[in-house]
Amino acid sequence: MKTREEYIESLRALHLNVYFMGKKIDNPVDHPMIRPSLNSLAMTYELAQQEEYKDLMTATSNITGKTVNRFCHIHQSAEDLVKKVKMQRLLGQKTASCFQRCVGMDAFNAIWSTTYEMDEACGTNYHQRFRNYVQYCQDNDLVVDGAMTDPKGDRSLSPSQQEDPDLYVHINEIRPDGIVVTGAKAHQTGSVNSHEHLIMPTCSMREDDADYAVSFAIPSDAEGVTIIYGRQSCDTRKMEEGADIDLGNSTFGGHETLFIMDHVFVPMERVFMCREYQFSNMLVERFAGYHRQSYGGCKVGVGDVLIGAAALAADYNGVPKASHIKDKLIEMVHLNETLYACGIACSAEGKKTKSGNYLIDMLLANVCKQNVTRYPYEITRLAEDIAGGLMVTMPSQADLQHEEVGPLVRKYLAGAKGTDTVNRMRILRLIENLTLGTAAVGYRTESLHGAGSPQAQRIMISRQCNMEAKKELARQIAHIDTSLDKKSQGK
User: Fold this and answer.
1) pLDDT value of position 293
2) How far apart are CA 371 and CA 126, in angstroms?
3) HpaB/PvcC/4-BUDH N-terminal domain: which residues (predicted)?
């Protein structure tokens, strides 16, 4: 397994075609806008090297029997699924940001079982190809960006009905040695920090959409790839000279990109679905289930930091013993632990697939993500309530450090007796970062739309809840004679 330093150096070897704010970035590794997100992802390597975290951060490969980073692992038990969630909570606690490696792990496990069942039904050999690819990623400890979401264009139309066919990733040409593809994937978390991109269809396909039913892997610097770096709230603060306090979290962060492929050639050994449209729904649902489970870990870890920051803000404001403050903090903990409980529950109820890896309980995973679309918003509201208005109105770090007005800032922003003004400003900026700033992209908005927007989970809950079985339970308890209903219908 790679060390943190080896991972960073491996990124320098890539020749990425990255643009940000109208300019090409020649050195993404050391760019001040990108480096905090790289630091977050590097934590997945750093903790895997530390003895106290190895049980969560590493696993034994079912392919080679070697120790691998859990982010490259194929889940072999319900215990693996539980450890995944615990690992994600740990990393959220350590970075207070998105650590960007979950999507690849979830794509691995969804494609693993789907290719097995596709081969069984269609006589293809995708599963062995994918098995070889997973081993390659494990052997080299690679970061793989799972890519599912297409731009989608007019969402009332299917992929094949779009005016511009490139709004969904599609096959241009099938050759004996591979395929040629064009299209884009949007909202790609950690894309610039990834060695590989693992592409999946974004929705259930019909026969007319067969050219869009495609899954494959390409290096992040493949010929024909362009990566456009996305904007985040307050992101240009990172560009300010000596930026520290105003950032809230100066060390860690996240990022998303628009990942564009223009007639990219994919060797056949890296193709894992090619026009098998009838299996697109299975892949989409399984990936979504795994990723909705993930939110019961990563968002909870970040929530732990936000709760701690709110409690510290109360200390600096001199109100830690106020009953309404205590009650708000308790509510924040209650909501956060409810999310965690859902993540653990859907993992503990996981079952073995035909391919041998374990799939979470789909109903509980969707319940987990449905809660994640709501609870982080209430947690942030309570944090902002406890922090007070100063969080969004206080002067800048430059004012604090100014020879003339700096002493005034320290004097008038002083908090409770025995506390330091600078520390008070730091904790308020951290809360701002998590609730309104760069980290809010991953904690709040991604909680709403990531792994499918709220309605997607409600559709899955409707499908998975087995309402007819619940009706039968009620019939039995109430001694319902269904034959009477049938007679009434006939009248």
Assistant:
1) 97
2) 35
3) 3-273
Report the distance separating Cα 94 and Cα 279, nearest Å.
38
Chain mean pLDDT for the chain: 97
Residues in contact with 44: Cβ distance below 8 Å, sequence separation at least 6, in sequence order: 57, 69, 71, 91, 99, 101
Please give the positions annotated as active site. 98, 102, 189, 256, 291, 295, 298, 446
For the stretch 292-328, what's the b/e string if a residue is b when 16 or more beta carbons lie within 10 angstroms of its beta carbon?
bbbbbbbbbbbbbbbbebbbbbbbbbebbeeeebeeb
Residue identified by tokens 């990393």 is 91
Is the separation of the CB atoms in 162 and 154 below 8 Å?
Answer: yes
Beta strands, E only, 240-352? 256-267, 271-274, 351-352
Query: Domain 284-470: which topology?
Result: Butyryl-CoA Dehydrogenase, subunit A; domain 3 (1.20.140)
Are 395 and 380 spatial neighbours (Cβ–Cβ below 8 Å)? no
User: CB of 270 within 8 A of CB of 451?
Assistant: no
Q: Coil, helix or strand for 238?
A: helix
Asked if residue 367 lies in contact with residue 295, where contact means CB atoms within 8 angstroms, the answer is no
Confidence of residue 309 (pLDDT cuts 50, 70, 90): very high
Taking the mean position of all CA atoms in its chain, how far away is CA 39?
A: 16
pLDDT band of residue 485 (cuts 50, 70, 90) is confident
Question: What pLDDT is stored for residue 488 in this prediction?
Answer: 80
Distance of CA 329 to the CA centre of its chain: 26
Instruction: Please tell me the predicted confidence (pLDDT) of residue 421.
Output: 98
Residues forming beta bridges with residue 189, ordered by sequence position: 256
Bridge partners for 218 per DSSP: 197
Q: pTM score, two decimals?
A: 0.96
Residue positions forming the annotated binding site for FAD: 189
User: DSSP character for 396?
Assistant: P
Please, what is the Cα angle at 159 between 157 and 161, to 5 degrees? 55
Domain ranges of the chain: 4-278, 284-470
Give the chain's length.
Answer: 491
Nearest 5°: the CA angle 373, 378, 380 is: 105
Token look-up 């109208």 returns 22
- Residues 491 and 489: their CA atoms lie apart, in Å, by 6
Residues in the annotated binding site: 189
Question: Parallel, antiparallel, or unpaired for β 358-359 and 351-352?
Answer: antiparallel
**Cβ(205)–Cβ(165) under 8 Å?**
no
Q: What share of the chain is helix, strand, coil (3-state, %, to 5)?
A: 55, 15, 30
CA distance 214 to 171: 7
CATH superfamily of 4-278: Butyryl-CoA Dehydrogenase, subunit A, domain 2 (2.40.110.10)
| Residue 207, Cβ density class (10 Å: 0-12 exposed, 13-18 middle, ≥19 buried) | exposed
